[in-house]
């Protein structure tokens, strides 16, 4: 199936979970990333059981603390 | 209030814009913006807002200028090392534009003083470098119904979003709670390219100016991310459902301000 991750279309295995995608994408500090699918928040703690569907649009939102 | 000849000349490139005009420039001169943090982000914000003729600029920071700041904090100069950042920032802004009244707050911003600090300002800039301060500013602005610009920079990356009461998600809608101490690197630990403050801070100044003018679309409901190495900006749409947010939602569970524990490496930095 095809999903869009951070603006890029990609082919992934059917029934891929958010947790698996996070591992595949080498997300930095994965336990603190905010994930949205099709403009909805994925509740933290549900990444293992959240299964992606064909056409899903996934975004990773990262903490960015610097400024000083 | 009529413009002096000097003001007509100083702001001529603003006044000629149909989105600004004499009316818009007056709005800027009557506006009050508070910048929390006089560092990598706060420096360019302060300078562009001062140049633009924002009539009152508040600036809050407890730190003194350090030599290691000068790689990015362009409002301070080598001669300012050791001076309170707010003092150095005030001197630069006043030298740039005598129309601007600069109010300095040489203090940490905490749950005790933030409501008092923000209450007289039209727009708040989060130029801080740590998560306790970012959550504090968010929660206080939500509670006081004040618009603010969030931003963060690290390495070659930056992000920003704008909160306007009732017009989209707040920072806590997106990031529920601060990460534990040292769980996520800060720019002191990880480094940051100096010009990143210029890119993202200038965008924060732009949001403040647009808000005051009431022109264009603000970055409400979006997180703008910038990757300098890929030279890529992305405007990521945020979920519009704010009902469940702990602070701006329908049934807030956070009704008092929280002073979260700072990462040790952040030290005294705001
Ligand atoms: Zn919220």
Shape descriptor of chain B reads globular
Read across the widest sheet of chain A, the strand sequence of neighbours is 2-1-5-3-4
What Rg of chain A is obtained from the alpha carbons, in whole angstroms? 12 Å
Strand order of the largest sheet of chain B: 3-2-1-4-5-6-7-8
Looking at the structure, what is the overall shape of chain A?
globular
Q: How many separate structural domains of chain B?
A: 1
* Distance from first to last alpha carbon of chain B: 37 Å
In CATH terms, the superfamily of chain A is Beta-grasp domain
User: What share of the residues of chain A lie within helices?
Assistant: 10-25%
The count of DSSP E runs of length 2 or more, i.e. the number of strands of chain A, is 5
Oligomer: heterodimer
CATH topology of chain A: Ubiquitin-like (UB roll)
- What structural class do the secondary elements of chain B suggest? alpha/beta
What fraction of residues of chain B sit in β-strands? Answer: 15-25%
Essential attributes:
heterodimer, A: 68 residues, mainly beta, Ubiquitin-like (UB roll), five-stranded mixed β-sheet, 1 helix, 28% strand, B: 270 residues, alpha/beta, Rossmann fold, eight-stranded mixed β-sheet, globular, disordered C terminus, binds zinc ion
What would your notes on this structure say?
The complex is a heterodimer of chains A (68) and B (270). Chain A is mainly beta and 68 residues long. Chain A has one helix and five strands, in the order E-E-H-E-E-E. Chain A has one helix at 18-24, and strands at 2-5, 8-11, 34-37, 40-41, 57-61. In chain A, a hairpin with a 2-residue loop joins strand 1 and strand 2 (8-11). The longest helix of chain A has 7 residues, at 18-24. Chain A starts with a strand and ends in a 7-residue tail after the last strand. With 270 residues, chain B is an alpha/beta fold. Chain B has a single domain (31-237), classed as NAD(P)-binding Rossmann-like Domain (Rossmann fold). Residues 264-270 of chain B have low confidence and may be disordered. Chain B starts with a helix and ends in a 33-residue tail after the last strand. At the A-B interface, strand 4 of A face strand 5, strand 6, helix 9 and strand 8 of B. Zinc ion (ZN) binds next to helix 8 of chain B.
């Amino acid at each position: 199936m095809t999903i869009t991750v951070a603006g890029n279309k990609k082919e992934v295995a059917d029934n891929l979970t958010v947790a698996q995608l996070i591992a595949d994408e080498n997300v930095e500090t994965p336990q603190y990333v905010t994930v949205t699918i099709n403009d909805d928040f994925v509740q933290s703690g549900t990444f293992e059981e959240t299964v992606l569907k064909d056409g899903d649009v996934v975004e990773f939102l990262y903490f960015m603390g610097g400024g000083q | 209030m009529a413009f002096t000849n000097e003001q007509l000349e100083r702001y001529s490139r603003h006044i000629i814009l149909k989105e600004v005009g004499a009316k818009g420039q007056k709005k800027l001169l009557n506006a009050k913006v508070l910048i929390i943090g006089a560092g990598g982000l706060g420096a360019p914000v302060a300078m562009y807002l001062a140049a633009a003729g924002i009539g009152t600029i508040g600036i809050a920071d407890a730190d003194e200028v350090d030599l290691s700041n000068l790689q990015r904090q362009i409002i301070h100069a080598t001669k300012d090392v050791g001076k309170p950042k707010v003092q150095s920032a005030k001197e630069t802004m006043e030298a740039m534009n005598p129309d601007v009244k600069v109010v300095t707050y040489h203090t940490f911003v905490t749950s005790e003083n933030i409501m008092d600090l923000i209450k007289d300002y039209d727009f708040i800039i989060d130029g801080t470098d740590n998560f306790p301060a970012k959550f504090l500013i968010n929660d206080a602005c939500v509670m006081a119904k004040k618009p603010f610009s969030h931003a963060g920079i690290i390495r070659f990356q930056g992000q920003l979003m704008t909160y306007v009461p009732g017009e989209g998600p707040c920072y806590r809608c997106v990031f529920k709670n601060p990460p534990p101490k040292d769980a996520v690197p800060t720019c002191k630990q990880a480094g940051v390219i100096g010009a990143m403050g210029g890119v993202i801070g200038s965008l924060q100044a732009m949001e403040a100016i647009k808000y005051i003018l009431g022109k264009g679309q603000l970055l409400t409901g979006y997180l703008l991310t910038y990757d300098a190495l890929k030279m890529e900006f992305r405007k990521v749409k945020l979920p519009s459902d704010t009902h469940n947010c702990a602070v701006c939602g329908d049934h807030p569970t956070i009704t008092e301000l929280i002073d979260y524990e700072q990462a040790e490496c952040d030290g005294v930095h705001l």
